[in-house]
C-alpha cells in the first residue's frame, strides 16, 4: 500500500493551520532532544517563531541506553509542551514508546515519533495504525530500507495513511561519528514509496559541528524535511548535547536549508 506502484501521487500530511508535510514543501522540525523545563520550552518556542518554524520536536519519554540516564518529563512535560505550542501556533512531534501511552498522549500531540529502537515494535505500529494521527517512523538502528517500508506497511494497513519515513543514520564499524547518515536512502525511498521522507542529521552524524553540511546534503538529496536538535545551551542539555546546535547555529541552518531548497 505504501508503494509507488499502488499510489503514484505523493502523500501529503496536513497538520492543520496550513502546515503540510510532503512533496513541494520543505518541513523543518527542531527542538531539544528532551523536554527539560517550562523555561526551556518558552525559549525554544521563541526561537522557532522568530524563524517561522512550525513544528517543534522534544522527547518526554526517552529511550536511553542506560537506565540511570534522564528518561524524560513524561505526561506532565507533554502537557506543558502542548500548552506553549498551542498558544504560539506550533505543532508538536514527540516520541511514543509503548502502546499504553498512545491514549494519554493523543490530545497533546500532532505527530507521533516512533524511535529507531521501536522501528519494528509491531504491536506499537498496529496501534498507531488505528490511532489516526500522523506518524514519523524512524529507520531501525541497523534497519534495512525494506524493513522500514514493511514497518510503515503495518501502520498503513491498519488504516492510517499519515506516515513519514525518517532516515536517522545506521550503525556501522566506523566510530569517528555516532552513526552513518545514509543519504542514499532518500532518493531510493522516494522512488519506492509515495510517503514523505524526512532526514535527522543530528542522530545521523552525532556531532553538532557537522549537522549543517549533512542537512544541506539532505535537502539536495530530495528530502521533504529535516528534524534536528537545538537547545538554548547545548553543553547543558540533559541528553544528546554533543549533537545539538545552539540557536545561532540553528538560525543559520534554517536560512541555508531554505536557500538550498529554492535551488533544488
Ligand atoms: C530522538 O529523536 O531523540 C531519538 C531518540 O531518536 P532515535 O530513535 O533516532 O535514536
Ligand atoms: Mn536525541
Give a structural overview:
There is one protein chain. Helix content is 37%, strand content 16%. By secondary structure, the protein is α/β, with parallel strands linked by helices. The chain has a single domain, classed as TIM Barrel. The strands form two sheets. An eight-stranded parallel β-barrel has the order 3-4-5-6-7-8-9-10, surrounded by five helices. α4 (122-131) packs across α5 (145-157). The chain is globular and about 45 Å long. Phosphoenolpyruvate (PEP) binds next to loops. Residues 13-262 form the DAHP synthetase I/KDSA domain. Keywords: Transferase. This is 3-deoxy-7-phosphoheptulonate synthase.
Q: Mind summarizing the main beta sheet? A: 8 strands, parallel, barrel
Beta-strand segment tally: 10
Structural class: alpha/beta
End-to-end gap: 28 Å
And the CATH topology? TIM Barrel
Fourth CATH level, the homologous superfamily: Aldolase class I
* Small molecules in complex: phosphoenolpyruvate, manganese (II) ion
What proportion strand?
15-25%
- Mind telling me the CATH class? Alpha Beta
Provide a count of the helices.
Answer: 9
Q: Which regions have little confidence, pLDDT < 50, spanning 5+ residues?
A: none
- CATH architecture classification: Alpha-Beta Barrel
In terms of quaternary structure, what is this? Answer: single chain
The total tally of domains equals 1
Strands of the widest sheet, in order across it, are 3-4-5-6-7-8-9-10
Give the % helix.
Answer: 25-40%
Rg, Cα atoms, Å: 17 Å
| Secondary-structure element order, N to C | EEEHEHEHEHEHEHEHHEH
**Average residue-wise pLDDT:** 98
Shape: globular
Amino acid at each position: 500500500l505504501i508503494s509507488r506502484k499502488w499510489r503514484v501521487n505523493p502523500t501529503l500530511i496536513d497538520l492543520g493551520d496550513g502546515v503540510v508535510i510532503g512533496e513541494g514543501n520543505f518541513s523543518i522540525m527542531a527542538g531539544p532532544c528532551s523536554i527539560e523545563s517550562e523555561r526551556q520550552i518558552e525559549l525554544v518556542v521563541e526561537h522557532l517563531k522568530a524563524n517561522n518554524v512550525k513544528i517543534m520536536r522534544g522527547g518526554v519519554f526517552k529511550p536511553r541506553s542506560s537506565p540511570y540516564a534522564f528518561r524524560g518529563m513524561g505526561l506532565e512535560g507533554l502537557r506543558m509542551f502542548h500548552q506553549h505550542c498551542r498558544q504560539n501556533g506550533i505543532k508538536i512531534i514527540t516520541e511514543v514508546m509503548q502502546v499504553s501511552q498512545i491514549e494519554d498522549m493523543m490530545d497533546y500531540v500532532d505527530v507521533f515519533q516512533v524511535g529507531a529502537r521501536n522501528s519494528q515494535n509491531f504491536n506499537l505500529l498496529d496501534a498507531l495504525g488505528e490511532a489516526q494521527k500522523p506518524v514519523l517512523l524512524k529507520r531501525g538502528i541497523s534497519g534495512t530500507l525494506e524493513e522500514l517500508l514493511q514497518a510503515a506497511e503495518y501502520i498503513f494497513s491498519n488504516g492510517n495513511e499519515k506516515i513519514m519515513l525518517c532516515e536517522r543514520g545506521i550503525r556501522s564499524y566506523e566510530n569517528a561519528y555516532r552513526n552513518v547518515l545514509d543519504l542514499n536512502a532518500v532518493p531510493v525511498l522516494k522512488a519506492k514509496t509515495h510517503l514523505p521522507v524526512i532526514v535527522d542529521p543530528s542522530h545521523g552524524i552525532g556531532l553538532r559541528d557537522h549537522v549543517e553540511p549533512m542537512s544541506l546534503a539532505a535537502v539536495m538529496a530530495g528530502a521533504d524535511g529535516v528534524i534536528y536538535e537545538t537547545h538554548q545551551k547545548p553543553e547543558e542539555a540533559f541528553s544528546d548535547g554533543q549533537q545539538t546546535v545552539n540557536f545561532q547555529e540553528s538560525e543559520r541552518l534554517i536560512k541555508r536549508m531554505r536557500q538550498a531548497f529554492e535551488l533544488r
